[in-house]
From TrEMBL:
The keyword Ribonucleoprotein does not apply. Residues 1-46 are annotated as: Disordered. This is Ribosome biogenesis protein BRX1 homolog. InterPro entries: Brix, BRX1. The lineage of its organism: Eukaryota, Metazoa, Chordata, Craniata, Vertebrata.
Length: 165
């Protein structure tokens, strides 16, 4: 039994080859005979290929900021949260007169997906807003006790590059 040797293209020896197409036969005309209008039409029909910037990483950025009128303990709590979360961003204090929907705009400008907002009322009560900024749910919590990392003598995040729970 003799084995039939296949050619590279996968053709069998008895089949005919297709004739090669010349540049004149191709869909695009030669450069010398192309008019500017025809070239614009051809370029409009082309779809650009995908742009690859490497492997995509899922980074959920968290914006941590507060309203004006917070005390030093709240400021230290915010700083502790920033040290524990390697993927957090800070922002300047927000005015008390601003409405809460301004937070979504700030998150969009800072390219953040989540938000932790500390709201001080009458310099006594502290509320924490946690939200999924574009159109997600939000929750409001009353903060009763604050214990910072310096008080508890904790060192902070041992694995700075790890993602917190």
């Amino acid at each position: 039994m003799a084995a039939i040797k296949r050619k590279r293209r996968g053709d069998l020896p008895g089949q005919e080859k297709k004739p090669k197409r010349n540049r004149k036969d191709a869909g695009l005309p030669a450069k010398s005979s192309v008019e500017p209008e025809e070239m614009e039409e051809v370029e409009k029909d082309r779809i650009p290929g995908p742009v690859c910037k490497g492997k995509w990483k899922n980074k959920e950025w968290v914006l941590i900021f507060s309203s004006r009128g917070i005390n030093f303990r709240t400021r230290h709590l915010m700083q502790d949260l920033r040290t524990l979360m390697p993927h957090s961003k800070a922002d300047t204090k927000m005015d008390r007169k601003d409405k809460l929907f301004v937070i979504n705009e700030v998150c969009e400008m800072k390219n953040c997906n989540k938000c932790v907002y500390f709201e001080a009322k009458k310099k006594q009560d502290l509320y924490t807003w946690l939200s999924n900024s574009p159109h997600g749910p939000s929750a409001k919590f009353l903060v009763q006790n604050i214990h910072t990392l310096a008080e508890l003598k904790m060192t902070g995040n041992c694995l700075k590059g790890s993602r917190p729970v």
